[in-house]
Specification:
single chain, mainly alpha, three-stranded parallel β-sheet
Length: 181
């Protein structure tokens, strides 16, 4: 009987210790959008991406301007078409139609290629910044003993009350001062 009592007492002690350990898990939260916007690397990535996107946009605008000139020329030649110059002007108009169609095809292909390049460039520029922020959050969470850190900028967090905001600690870990916003 004494042995059974001891086993029961040990089991109850283990059960209580497990509950106490679970109750001591720490929860934290961070607004990753605020963190990312405060990182100088994000500002650099934004500027580089905007420059790249503007180059692609300019390229497309130049192609479209050239196409518009050809269309204007086509309209002018069509208005000037008569029975007397039908043979000569007709061939020029046919050639213009072919050029315009080719240009429209090139513009469409360039637009599609530009979208692919923009996606690749976005990943290339922003992925290292995201990784650096994520790594810093993990380090701070480990240092402070957090079991969970929730990102309150994401739509999955419906409500939070309590927990510790890690934003300041992560900014410090990244060397970001509040003045560098």
């Amino acid at each position: 009987m004494k042995k059974l009592f001891r086993i029961g007492l040990v089991a109850a002690g283990l059960f209580m210790a497990g509950n106490v350990a679970n109750a001591q898990q720490k929860f934290g939260h961070i607004n990753s959008a605020d963190l990312l916007q405060s990182m100088p690397e994000m500002k650099t990535a934004d500027a580089n991406f905007q420059t790249f996107a503007k180059q692609k946009q300019t390229e497309l605008e130049l192609m479209d301007a050239e196409r518009t000139k050809k269309i204007t020329l086509y309209n002018d030649k069509t208005k000037a078409l008569s029975e007397a110059n039908k043979e000569t002007l007709g061939k020029e108009i046919e050639a213009l139609v072919k050029e315009i169609q080719d240009m429209e095809k090139r513009i469409t292909e360039t637009q599609e290629k530009s979208q692919e390049l923009l996606t690749t460039k976005r990943t290339e520029l922003y992925q290292p910044v995201f990784k650096k922020a994520e790594d810093a959050v993990k380090v701070v969470a480990k240092e402070k003993g957090f079991a969970y850190v929730f990102d309150v900028s994401q739509p999955g967090v419906v409500y939070f009350d309590g927990g510790e905001d890690l934003l300041a600690a992560v900014k410090t870990k990244l060397g970001i001062t509040t003045a560098s916003k």
